[in-house]
Design brief:
The complex is a heterodimer of chains A (433) and B (188). Helix content of chain A is 64%, strand content 1%. Chain A contains 19 helices and two strands. Chain A has a two-stranded antiparallel ribbon with strand order 1-2. The longest helix of chain A is centred in the last third of the chain and has 38 residues. The radius of gyration of chain A is 28 Å and the shape is globular. Classes of the chains: A mainly alpha (433), B alpha+beta (188). Chains A and B meet through helix 1, helix 4, helix 5, helix 9 and helix 10 of A and helix 1, strand 4 and helix 3 of B.
């Protein structure tokens, strides 16, 4: 069969979109002679926005509960139960969206897009875990976050990740945060939501690429505790830093550390730090020189990062659909490629001029130049800062969790003999009364 | 366990200052966002004048059955007897049999009104948002059939997967109190 029509169809489509935009019609609506009445178009209303506020309420209650369980009750079983509840509620029941991790981008878009304002419930989701972290450490990560929970639930045989590897891999999370903020600010895409590995499991549907990625993370997560939280989560990066300043936080022992070393390997996330030995004098001098060198290196790294980010602006800008389109149109107009894509067809159908598109793309590229510089400088700053913290030795007399890395899961409590003593006292006290 | 040591006191002072600054920072961000704030939610919707009915809506939605479905504005419809939203423009044979119908799921219902007019209705549960009828109606008709995100089904993902795949950049966020972007003409 001969099929010459597609070209005709395309031409007609071009014509019609133009015509329709002017409000003209090819066939005037009929004047009916019978008493036919035109039906009205009905479109289903969106569900009432009550659920978001219920979610915000549940978030507040679960955060308070998590705080009590982590810092007062110190009971891993109860923390785990709460975690499973949050996995079921925020994850499977409420489909894992909106979450505080993605809300970073909504906040960013609010700041940069004059036409967008963040809904109140999303703002609560963004800010509440931050405030709780400033007061009580990462209780959100430990018991409330559904993404953390799904990984924690599959952790069966934790292996130790060397500290240098852990620090190195964590750079991905910083880069991810920076990129997420940059692309949200540019209005290109919410990449943190687009590549959320577990939302597909919560909904039991989704793109297969993301499902495979999530499945791999869960497989890895059976042996490496919470890989997304530790190496990828952009919100976790913010919580890490705030958690360093928290007023109250997890302590392994309820009273004094007796250096029994029983808790040494308790943490599947490598967050327990050993007591430090005093430095030999000679080594101390070397370390001091190294610190001075790294301090000088920091601005160099920031500068290099900024320069690198600026150089990458062309590639960064390609995430924006407008820039991609402009590139495609340029290639087509200069006969550097053959054929058209859906995007270039749609562009021509709308009747925008290509000069206008090029101007918009150039402007976006310029903005990506600035954005890329800032992103690069941020990454340089993070690398420099990481080197600095790795080279500084904190004095520690006892076994204690690193406030930044501790995910407040409560696993270490049961390892501490002092904790058992406390529990026993508590039980006896209960019996006595 | 309080430690009375000058060095620690200085560090603690810095820490407290930083802590306060962070709290103020969160408060500032929250205050700024709330000031600009919006009580209603934002939902995804398709601008029907930008949409090219490429077919991505049927395949890229995170839902098994897409939340995008065809919508019909009767006021724009020409009630054509030969409707290319309903019939394949390249029929196997010139007749009105079912094999010549455009919709792959049979979601368009056709009802005789009066000579020579027919009313076309979308059977919503059957529609999968492929946009074949939209393409036909745009090409040869008035464009009264067009795609919309139906909010009873939409999960309202923070980043809509179809929006990311839309070649025409026809998806945009709309405030929840005006959740549809329906086509309209003066006389409707």
């Amino acid at each position: 069969m001969v099929r010459p029509r597609p070209i005709l169809v395309a031409l007609a489509a071009l014509l019609v979109v133009g015509v329709a935009a002017l409000g003209l019609e090819r066939f005037p609506p009929p004047e009916f002679e019978t008493d036919y009445v035109r039906p009205t178009t009905t479109a289903p209303n969106p569900p009432q926005g009550v659920w978001e506020y219920v979610d915000a309420g549940v978030l507040a209650v679960t955060l308070v509960l998590a705080t009590v369980l982590v810092l007062r009750t110190r009971n891993r079983k109860l923390i785990f139960t709460l975690m499973l509840f949050c996995l079921a509620y925020f994850g499977f029941f409420r489909d894992g969206c909106v979450c505080p991790i993605g809300a970073i981008q909504n906040v960013t878009l609010t700041a940069f897009d004059p036409g967008y304002a963040i809904p109140l419930a999303v703002l609560i989701f963004f800010a509440l875990p931050l405030v709780f972290t400033l007061f009580f450490g990462r209780v959100f990560c430990g018991a409330v976050c559904p993404l953390g929970a799904i990984q924690d639930a599959v952790l069966i045989h934790p292996v130790r990740v060397p500290r240098w590897l852990e620090s190195g891999l964590r750079l991905i999370a910083y880069l991810y945060l920076g990129a997420g903020v940059l692309f949200a600010a540019m209005g290109a895409m919410f990449i943190i939501c687009r590549y959320d590995p577990f939302v597909g499991f919560f909904r039991l549907s989704g793109n297969w690429e993301i499902l495979v990625f999530g499945g791999c993370l869960l497989l890895i997560g059976m042996f490496v505790g919470r890989p997304y939280c530790r190496f990828l989560c952009p919100y976790g990066v913010i919580l890490r830093q705030l958690s360093r300043l928290s007023r109250w936080r997890v302590t392994i022992t309820p009273t004094d550390c007796i250096q029994c070393r029983l808790c040494e390997d308790a943490c599947p996330f490598g967050a327990i730090r050993k007591p430090t030995e005093p430095w030999p004098d000679k080594e101390y001098k070397v370390a001091r020189r190294r610190l001075a060198f790294l301090l000088v290196l920091l601005p160099v790294l920031i500068g290099a990062g900024g320069w690198g980010g600026y150089e990458l602006r062309q590639w960064l800008a390609l995430v924006h659909p407008e820039v991609r389109l402009a590139q495609r149109i340029y290639l087509e107009e200069n006969a550097l490629v053959e054929g058209t894509t859906d995007a270039s067809d749609a562009f021509r159908a709308l009747g925008r001029s290509s000069d206008e598109l090029y101007a918009a793309a150039t402007q976006l590229r310029d903005r990506f130049g600035l954005g890329g510089t800032l992103l690069g400088a941020f990454v340089g700053c993070v690398i420099g800062g990481k080197l600095l913290t790795l080279s500084v030795k904190r004095r520690r007399a006892d076994y204690e969790p690193d406030p930044a890395s501790c995910l407040a899961c409560g696993r270490c409590y049961a390892y501490c003999p002092k904790e058992h003593e406390r529990l026993k006292r508590g039980r006896e006290g209960l019996i006595r009364h | 366990m309080p430690q009375r040591n000058d060095d620690v006191t200085r560090r603690r002072f810095l820490r407290d200052g930083l802590w306060g600054a962070c709290l103020a920072g969160i408060g500032g961000v929250a205050g700024f966002a709330a000031h600009k704030g919006q009580k209603v939610d934002w939902l995804w919707q398709i601008d029907p004048y930008k949409c090219t009915a490429c077919g991505n809506c049927a395949t890229h939605c995170v839902l098994e059955e897409s939340a995008v479905k065809c919508t019909h504005v009767y006021g724009i419809c020409g009630y054509c007897e030969i409707c290319f939203g309903f019939f394949d423009p390249e029929p196997f044979d010139i007749h009105e049999g079912a094999e010549n119908q455009m919709c792959p799921t049979g979601a368009i219902l056709r009802k005789f009104v009066e000579e020579p007019y027919y009313e076309y209705t979308i059977d919503r549960p059957l529609c999968n948002g492929c946009g074949k009828c939209v393409k036909g109606c745009n090409a040869f008709g008035n464009g009264s059939l067009f795609l919309q995100v139906h909010h009873d089904r939409c999960e309202n993902c923070n980043q809509c997967a179809i929006a990311a795949a839309c070649p025409a950049q026809a998806f945009r966020r709309v405030p929840a109190d005006q959740p549809y972007l329906l086509k309209s003409v003066d006389h409707v």
